[in-house]
From TrEMBL:
Residues 5-122 form the VOC domain. InterPro entries: Glyas_Bleomycin-R_OHBP_Dase (IPR029068), Glyas_Fos-R_dOase_dom (IPR004360), VOC_core (IPR037523). PROSITE patterns: VOC. It holds the Pfam family Glyoxalase. This is VOC family protein. It comes from Amycolatopsis cynarae.
Length: 123
């Protein structure tokens, strides 16, 4: 038996519609027409990305200092600086300012639930 790698990524969120709207309007992601119950799946490649209601027993408010601590979630964008500028202008909290590194222009922001999401633009 061999695992071949990540195949699906999902964040558990407090308010499903608010989170889905954030990823649609601020990052430009598009919803897939079908999704499992209690989730919104986006048309991302090569790995599907989703937001979903918390599973039973998950208390996102107890996750301190923020949910996902210790997990690195990186998403690719065509122009990281442009996205940074738009998110910053919209009042989205920037955790790490843009810098140039091995993955191109890179920065990290906090989504509405406090997840740290890193954006880079090198394919």
């Amino acid at each position: 038996m061999t695992v071949t790698g990540p195949d699906f990524l999902a964040l558990q969120v407090r308010d499903l519609e608010q989170a889905a709207k954030f990823y649609e309007t601020r990052l430009g992601l598009r919803r897939l027409p079908t999704a499992p119950p209690h989730a919104v799946v986006f048309d991302t490649a090569p790995i599907p990305f989703a937001v979903r209601e918390p599973l039973p027993g998950v208390d996102l408010d107890a996750a301190r200092p923020y949910p996902g601590l210790g997990v690195a979630l990186w998403l690719h964008a065509e122009n990281a600086q442009e996205l940074h500028d738009a998110l910053s202008a919209a009042g989205v909290r920037i955790i790490a300012a843009p810098f140039d590194g091995p993955f191109g222009r890179t920065f990290t922001f906090a989504d509405p639930d406090g997840y740290a999401v890193t954006i880079h633009d090198k394919a």
